[in-house]
Amino acid sequence: MNLTEKSAENVEYMVDQIKEKLRMLNFGAIKSTHFNEDMYEELKDIYEHVMKKQSFSPNEMQAIAEELGNLRKA
Is the pTM of this model over 0.85? Predict the structure, then answer.
């Protein structure tokens, strides 16, 4: 997958991977359609951060959820 290209498919992939890695129940409300390409780089940064780590504290998961919430389309 080439994540350097801004596309709806890449957004969907990154959101799905973040949700799977974090395994958080409240992420069910976050869908790839909630994000637009204007926020692509920020979403990619979150994705890369999540993929690098093996585990997350509850505070880290909350911070990631908040950041994703801030990126959602209005």
Answer: no
